[in-house]
Write a structure and sequence with these properties.
The complex is a heterodimer of chains A (895) and B (117). Chain A is an alpha+beta fold and 895 residues long. Chain A contains 27 helices and 23 strands. Chain A folds into 4 domains: 2-73, no CATH class; 132-342, no CATH class; 490-527 and 747-895, no CATH class; 541-739, no CATH class. In chain A, a hairpin with a 2-residue loop joins strand 8 (245-248) and strand 9 (251-258). Classes of the chains: A alpha+beta (895), B alpha+beta (117).
């Protein structure tokens, strides 16, 4: 082994020192011959004879040189290097071919590398936690009611902790927003309430200070850990803050530690990237089993698989179900943390990866076509080489080295394209996509590009190389020999390549067409409200002075709304808990008509706390009864307004006005009043364009108790949004300078956010489809032009015999159209497959890639086929026209 | 009819060079070639030029070393000498060749006996 290594190393040295070694050998041979001549002279030979004998004995200096070169280095590698130099010279000479081929491959490889640069960080890189592969998110689900990936009930979580044997640790957390006060600028930040073991479970090390201690589990003894960003921005990176209290929701909480910046860079789950701080003291005890409020994460014991853990959790869940009626229908579902995190981005990325793969295939087909044409031109050169003794393998190798050289040039240029495109790409994905900030050109991406270049070089080069190396010496070397049978075979190959290009292009165009269709349909969805001109923002009231005092909160909002309504340009304003498509709170309710539905059939609805003008502000139409008024206050009878869908579902054919319902599943609950329905409003797409209408229950914010506190302000305005927001901030500060204003957004923006993934995929798929179309057009253009050039002689004869230009043009265009038609027909299969891919991927049901399109949608299909045919017509017409412009005298002489 | 010269089997030249250097100490290429011819009684067919492929091979394996120097009659030449590692290799290879030669001799003798009978 050592000897082999030493020898290989010596051979490499020899490879790079070849000229010096050759000189040394020459010197050695000179001295060798001098010795021999001297000895021969001593033996009495004449000087001439002495020299002759010496040379004869030596046996040829050139052979000695060759045999030493072979012995000291890598003879095969050296000849490959010679082939490479030869190939490079040829490529330099044939610049038109080189530029075309390199450009096409650069587009193909560049697109692939750019998409891969995103895929590699998002899908392939492990999460930055210790033993990240063992982390799973633990959900509850209730398939009976169609609830999947549902939050977890605290009581169930505590039972899991006690009963399971598969997790080495199990932690819970709850997203929340926190008011930071105590200095001049109040701020609302998002964060998590967590069990103290979360960070030790993740294996996170603090940047400063420490992590939570078990005794901080108690609410009265809670601590806070700050994100690096919050520490920098709000606390000026003061290391002294650790151990000191800060004011959170009006209460002093001790700062336990600071997490490293890298923790926040990874948007792994809600507990990381989006959170600015983490507060312990998540009191899980004495909470009703029916409240599903928490997220849970577990770390599997070593060597326990997800399936094994799932099996045990199934058993535990069944036990809980039998024991407690409140848990009827609830199951446990485990999802690996990594899967959970990439769930949203994966389908889009897979589709795009396929799309760029197809683009590269088209580029390869084009280059293969160029190579076939080139092979015809080089027939004589190849025949000469074969005649001089080059075997077929040697010729194929030479041609493959050339094509790989082209593909590596394309790859290098493509890498530059990818570096540029990857910057654009990363901005198109939502910033919370895992690891997206790290996407870019790195070693893995570089290796990928090199591998793709090598694979393409060999794949597009192989067929032309094998074709070209089949030489018939007699035929080719004869003066003017044409090898007509081979010509016919190559023509079929070229036609095949064009057909497949069109089939692939159709597939991509169809996919892009479906995405456009989807966006059009999404834009046309009847939302049930009018988002134009509506602003929404959070004005949350927290802290001891508002806690548990709903009246006080209501008074604050009453004053604020009165002031906002008085601002110039404000048409309507209201308080709300929840804005459509941004916030949704499902709650059980029972109707007085059917107060005790069987367990598992308790109805549920979206619970929205609103002000009197909410419906007018959002443009939700009143269908029956009346809207809320200022008179629906604490002293009046509790009231509710329901959506049309709720009325239709639970009181079909009856007058919903005057019906009574109660939030929660217990009709005897004394803490919650019966609400009487005073109005019915139109349905609203509260969970996004794609989800069906769900029942909604609206309650006035001036009546109590609320289950959820109002915290949004919505207003319809014609004024400049930023001026209005500034004015509102002032009004809020005038009322209470400790109250923050956060998450300002227009409702149109909130609606648009929902379709952004579809837009991204549409845009990218559309760009790749356009690229594919361009490449296919170039492909058919080059094939038809070549065919025309080959037939110049024949066309000349036809025209000399009286054929008019039109009929010749028609003949040429017909050839192209026939190829296009076959390509389109084959492409139908591809179109079918891409529809399956786009609609069949395991996507998030809330944001599918396709919406409301039929598989093999005929309109889209017709559209893209027409586009392809038109492009092909133009690409064929140009060379056809040129063919008819050649004067017959020239054409007839053309060889 | 004079006996034709022996073609060298692959690897035998390397062994001869090693043995020559072990016996004679430092030698230049011509010296090695001449020495082998003399010892073999001119029975070996040796293009002297091929010795340089063998020398570079042995050098790369670290079995011999080389340095430019001056010969007795004041000519510049590259002198080769065997290394410690080369001596080890030589003793291994020599033992192998002797065993092989012994076995070959016995096998061939066996063949001629059986044809005699």
């Amino acid at each position: 082994m050592m000897a082999w290594l030493r020898q290989t190393a010596a051979r490499f040295r020899a490879l790079f020192r070849a000229p010096a070694l050759d000189r040394e050998l020459d010197a050695e041979m000179t001295s060798h011959l001098e010795f021999a001549v001297a000895e021969n002279l001593e033996r009495g030979l004449s000087p001439d004879e002495a020299r002759r004998q010496a040379l004869l004995h030596f046996g040829g200096t050139q052979q000695a040189r060759e045999s030493q070169r072979e012995a000291r280095a890598f003879p095969r590698l050296e000849s490959a290097l010679r082939d490479l130099r030869f190939g490079a010279r040829l490529l330099l000479r044939d610049r038109a071919f080189t530029v075309m081929a390199v450009l096409m491959l650069a587009l193909g490889i560049g697109a692939n590398t750019a998409i891969f640069s995103v895929v590699s960080v998002v899908l392939l890189q492990p999460l930055p936690y210790r033993d990240a592969g063992r982390l799973v998110i633990v959900w509850e689900q209730n398939p009976h009611r169609g609830w999947y990936e549902n939050n977890v009930s605290a009581a169930n979580f505590l039972d899991w902790q006690k009963q399971n044997h598969v997790f080495s640790d199990l932690a819970a957390f709850e997203s929340d927003s926190f008011d930071l006060t105590g200095d001049s600028h109040p701020e609302e930040v998002s964060g998590e309430r967590v069990t103290t073991n979360l960070f030790s479970l993740l294996g996170v090390q603090p940047f400063r200070g420490g992590l939570f201690l078990p005794e901080m589990e108690k609410k009265g003894n809670a601590g806070v850990i700050l994100s690096y960003g919050l520490w920098q921005e709000r606390y000026g990176a003061d290391p002294g803050i650790v151990g000191k209290p800060i004011t959170i929701d009006g209460q002093p909480v001790n700062v336990v530690g600071i997490l490293p910046a890298s923790f926040s860079n990874d948007y792994s789950a809600s507990f990381a990237g989006r959170s600015r701080l983490w507060v312990s003291g998540l009191d899980l005890h004495d909470e009703g089993r029916e409240f599903h409020n928490y997220s849970a994460i577990g770390k599997l014991k070593p060597r326990v698989t997800v399936a094994e853990a799932q099996a045990e959790m199934d058993v535990i869940a069944r036990g809980i179900e039998e024991q407690y009626p409140d848990s009827r229908g609830w199951q446990v579902a485990l999802v690996q943390l990594h899967d959970q995190v990439v769930e949203q981005a994966r389908p889009a990325l897979l589709v795009l990866l396929c799309a760029v793969g197809l683009v590269l295939l088209i580029a390869c087909a084009n280059v293969a076509n160029l190579l076939l044409v080139r092979a015809t031109k080089r027939e004589r050169e190849i025949a000469v080489r074969a005649a001089l003794g080059a075997g077929r393998g040697r010729i194929v190798r030479q041609l493959l080295i050339e094509s790989t050289l082209v593909s590596f040039l394309g790859g290098a240029l493509g890498l530059l394209l990818a570096a540029w495109a990857s910057g654009i790409l990363t901005r198109m994905f939502p910033p919370e996509t895992l690891g997206i900030s790290r996407a870019g050109i790195n070693v893995v991406v570089l290796l990928f590009a090199a591998a793709v270049a090598l694979a393409t070089g060999i794949s597009f080069g192989m067929v032309p190389a094998l074709e070209a190396s089949k030489t018939n010496l007699n035929e080719t070397l004869k003066e003017g020999g044409r090898g007509s049978d081979k010509g016919a075979k190559r023509k079929v190959l070229r036609d095949l390549l064009v057909v497949s290009e069109f089939a692939l292009a159709l597939t991509l165009l169809f996919g892009a067409g479906l995405m456009i269709h989807t966006l059009v349909h999404l834009a046309r969805v009847e939302l049930g409200f009018n988002p134009a001109g509506v602003l929404a923002m959070k004005v949350p009231l927290q802290g001891p002075q508002y806690d548990r005092d709903q009246q006080k909160q209501a008074r604050f909002y009453q004053q604020l709304i009165a002031r906002v309504q008085a601002l110039p340009g404000v048409e309507a304003a209201s308080v709300a808990r929840g804005v459509p498509m941004d916030d949704w709170a499902g709650w059980d309710f029972v109707s007085a008509d059917n107060p005790r539905p069987p367990a598992g059939e308790v109805p549920d609805a979206n619970y929205v706390v609103v002000g009197p003008d909410y419906f007018r502000t959002l443009g939700i139409p009143l269908r029956a009864g009346r809207p809320f008024s200022e008179n629906d206050n604490a002293t009046a009878e509790p009231r509710a307004i329901v959506s049309q869908s709720l009325a239709d579902k639970y009181w079909p054919g009856q007058n919903p006005i005057g019906k009574r319902l109660k939030i929660g599943s217990d009709p005897d609950d004394k803490n919650l009043p019966w609400l009487s329905v005073v109005g019915v409003v139109g349905n609203v797409k509260s969970q996004g364009q794609v989800a069906p209408f769900v029942p909604e229950i609206y309650v006035p914010y001036t009546q109590f108790p609320w289950i959820l506190h109002p915290r949004h302000i919505v207003l319809r305005t014609t004024a400049n949004p930023s001026a209005i927001v500034r004015a509102i901030r002032e009004e809020v500060a005038n009322l209470d300078k400790e109250v923050p204003v956060a998450d300002v957004a227009s409702l149109s923006e909130i609606v648009a956010r929902r379709v952004r993934p579809n837009q991204t995929v549409m845009f990218l798929l559309g760009s790749f489809a356009a690229l594919a179309l361009l490449l296919a057009a170039v492909g058919i253009y080059s094939v038809i032009s070549y065919a025309v050039t080959e037939r110049t002689h024949e066309i000349g004869i036809r025209m000399a015999l009286g054929a008019d230009r039109q009929s010749v043009t028609r003949m040429v265009v017909k050839h192209g159209l026939r190829l296009t038609a076959i390509g389109v027909a084959v492409g139908l299969v591809g179109a079918f497959l891409i529809t399956r891919l786009l609609s069949g991927l395991p996507v998030d049901a809330r944001a599918p890639l396709l919406f409301d399109v039929r598989p093999l949608d005929p309109l889209t299909l017709l559209g893209v086929s027409t586009l392809l045919v038109v492009v092909a017509l133009i690409a064929c017409y140009i060379p056809a026209r040129r063919a008819t412009r050649v004067p017959p005298t020239v054409a007839l002489r053309y060889e | 009819m004079p006996e034709s010269k022996l073609d060298l089997l692959q690897g035998t030249l390397d062994l001869m060079v090693l043995q020559t250097l072990a016996a004679m100490g430092s030698l230049h290429g011509y010296g090695i070639a001449r020495r082998i011819e003399q010892v073999s009684g001119d029975a070996v067919l040796l293009n002297q030029g091929t010795i340089y492929a063998s020398l570079v091979r042995l050098q790369q394996q670290g079995w011999i070393s080389a340095a430019w120097g001056t010969s007795d009659n004041n000519r510049k030449a590259k002198f080769y000498s065997i290394t410690k590692r080369g001596r080890k290799q030589l003793s291994q290879d020599a033992a192998y060749w002797q065993r092989l030669a012994g076995v070959m001799g016995r096998v061939l003798a066996l063949g001629s006996e059986s044809t005699d009978e």
